[in-house]
Specification:
Layout lengths: L6 H16 L11 H11 L4 H4 E4 L2 H10 L3 E4 L2 H6 L2 H6 L3 E3 L5 H10 L3 H10 L4 E6 L3 H13 L7 E4 L7 H7 L7 E4 L6 H20 L1
Parallel strand pairs: 2-3, 2-4, 4-5, 5-6
Antiparallel strand pairs: 1-6
Helix pairs in contact: 1-2, 2-11, 7-8, 8-9, 9-10
């Protein structure tokens, strides 16, 4: 039985196959955006991401600037935090966190009759060092982030990855991003998820490695 055993070899061949199958569908993306699109496909094995992912307001450069400044990254699930490359983020002094499982967040959410994601976002927005928001699960988190940003526009994020997955409020929350002058990457429609949010950030982060290598 013959197959590729080397992890790096598997990844390299996977991206070669993705590039081949994508063909000219990737032509509408910039050179900075293409690696992110390919990483989304690599993560999901779903080529529809080439059609539903959207980049606005110089999102990639804005995110790179924030990461180089050593910003904090708010994630709406602990799964995203776990999936991110901590060593890679550490090279730039950046870090990721999530608040949805904090006891006081849960208590306040129950008292107010709202989701924990909404309360957690309110607290994250209040932290001036939090410049990137990865929303892969809760549309309510994205709605609340935009609502708070509207009221407190001076702390505009450097990147919103609006990629929640689901049905109720999911496509609608992503559509709301169009109303705001903020750098964002989104997956239009129902598709997304925590792994997709991780892929977005890694697609940016790994490009930064390559630049610094030379």
């Amino acid at each position: 039985m013959s197959y590729i055993k080397d992890p790096k070899g598997i990844e390299v061949r996977s991206f070669e196959m993705i590039t081949e199958e994508l063909g000219d569908r990737a032509d509408r993306f910039s050179e900075q955006e293409k690696p992110i699109v390919k990483r989304l496909i690599h993560t999901t094995a779903d080529f529809e991401y080439a059609d539903i992912v959207e980049f606005q307001n110089d999102a990639v450069n804005s995110a790179m600037e924030a990461l180089r400044s050593g910003c904090k990254i708010y994630c709406d699930t602990n799964m995203i935090v776990t999936g991110l490359n901590k060593i890679g983020l550490g090279k730039f002094g950046a870090s990721a966190y999530c608040l949805v499982n904090d006891e006081d967040v849960a208590r306040e959410a129950k008292e107010r009759g709202v989701t924990r994601s909404m309360v957690a976002i309110e607290r994250a927005v209040a932290d001036k060092d939090t410049k990137i928001f990865l929303i892969g699960n809760a549309p309510t988190a994205l709605f609340m982030l935009l609502e708070k940003m509207d009221k407190e526009g001076e702390n505009k994020p450097k990147l919103i990855a609006g990629v929640p997955v689901g049905f109720v409020g999911c496509p609608e929350s992503k559509a709301e991003l169009s109303k705001y002058d903020v750098p964002f990457i989104r997956t239009n429609g129902r598709k997304g998820g925590s792994t997709v949010a991780v892929a977005v950030l890694h697609g940016i982060l790994y490009q930064m490695y390559e630049r610094d290598r030379y």
